[in-house]
Design a protein that fits this description.
By secondary structure, the protein is mainly α. The chain folds into two domains: 3-67, no CATH class; 83-115, no CATH class. The chain is built from four helices and two strands; from the N terminus they run H-H-H-E-E-H. It has a two-stranded antiparallel sheet. Strand 1 and strand 2 (92-96) form a beta hairpin. The protein is elongated and about 80 Å long.
């Protein structure tokens, strides 16, 4: 990191601390600036620069995250006792288990929907 970049980073940190101080004080921007001899134009310029730096830092972190390969964890499937789904139409009840084949489920639901 060069000297200029370091100076800029320290300046942004100082401005961020001032902005935080102003927010915590509960006074208006005008009152806070008047008490410290700043113009409101200076305050809002610094606020804009702090926000830009925060946005750039967030975008940089997102770019790093996007370049990394996602990690997936295998989660255990809950073991249910009995059917996974029960379809009821009137007095008819159809139980479908976790291990049911897609084609079978589709056929059963087609037949049941016609009842």
């Amino acid at each position: 990191m060069g000297v200029q970049t370091l100076k800029q980073s320290l300046r942004i940190q100082e401005w961020a601390a001032q902005i935080s101080d102003r927010k915590q004080s509960g006074v208006t921007v005008s009152e806070w600036c008047d008490a410290r001899g700043y113009s409101t134009k200076t305050y809002y310029y610094r606020l804009k620069r702090v926000r830009e730096e925060l946005l750039e830092a967030a975008e940089s972190r997102n770019q790093v995250a996007l370049r990394e390969k996602p990690v997936f964890a295998a989660l255990p499937m809950p073991q249910t006792k009995g059917p996974a789904v029960t379809v009821r139409i009137g007095a008819i009840a159809v139980n479908i288990g976790n291990d049911a084949e897609y084609d079978i489920v589709e056929q059963v639901l087609t037949v049941v929907s016609r009842l």
